[in-house]
């Protein structure tokens, strides 16, 4: 096996391990750290695919900004420190069957897929080509997305503040 295949399998296993650890953790901060492991592993897979720009964005946006935003959200909300043990029952088995079935369907769908290649050489200048495309052809969707993210952030803060005011009103 080549080094590429070994690196791909190791990064894939780390991403899957991070996801499984996140789902099985009982503490919220452990879940966040597991999610960071998954995000960084996916960034490594992007590097193997010669998508360095997407890998850097993955680390900056997801591993950094989104994770910090989630941690602040966790710290702003009130939650029980004591959490009950997750119950192992038939739902876990049904979930496993669903995930495996989804994986098989996706594999079969992608396996026979043929994508026409374009003449754009992204492997050598992918950051430059993405920047040119993003800021020449897709300026309006880029700005609309930034405004949408800002609205979502303000909405989350308003919801967190309204929950605090409701709790303060019931305590008095």
From TrEMBL:
User: Which of UniProt's keywords are assigned here?
Assistant: Cell membrane, Membrane, NAD, Quinone, Transmembrane, Transmembrane helix
Cell membrane among keywords: yes
List the transmembrane segments. Answer: 6-24, 31-49, 55-76, 96-115, 135-160
Q: Tell me where in or outside the cell this protein is found.
A: Cell membrane
EC assignment: the record states: 7.1.1.-
Q: What class of enzyme is it?
A: translocase
Q: Which InterPro entries match?
A: NADH_UbQ/plastoQ_OxRdtase_su6 (IPR001457), Nuo/plastoQ_OxRdtase_6_NuoJ (IPR042106)
Q: Which reaction does it catalyse?
A: a quinone + NADH + 5 H(+)(in) = a quinol + NAD(+) + 4 H(+)(out)
| Molecular-function GO terms, alphabetical | NADH dehydrogenase (ubiquinone) activity; quinone binding
Q: What is one term from the GO cellular component aspect held by the record?
A: plasma membrane
How does this protein lie in the membrane? Multi-pass membrane protein
Q: What does this protein do?
A: NDH-1 shuttles electrons from NADH, via FMN and iron-sulfur (Fe-S) centers, to quinones in the respiratory chain. Couples the redox reaction to proton translocation (for every two electrons transferred, four hydrogen ions are translocated across the cytoplasmic membrane), and thus conserves the redox energy in a proton gradient.
The record's section on NCBIfam families has: PRK06638.2-3
The cross-references to PANTHER family, in alphabetical order and at most eight, read: NADH-UBIQUINONE OXIDOREDUCTASE CHAIN 6 (PTHR33269)
Q: What is this protein called?
A: NADH-quinone oxidoreductase subunit J
Q: Which organism is it from?
A: Gottfriedia solisilvae
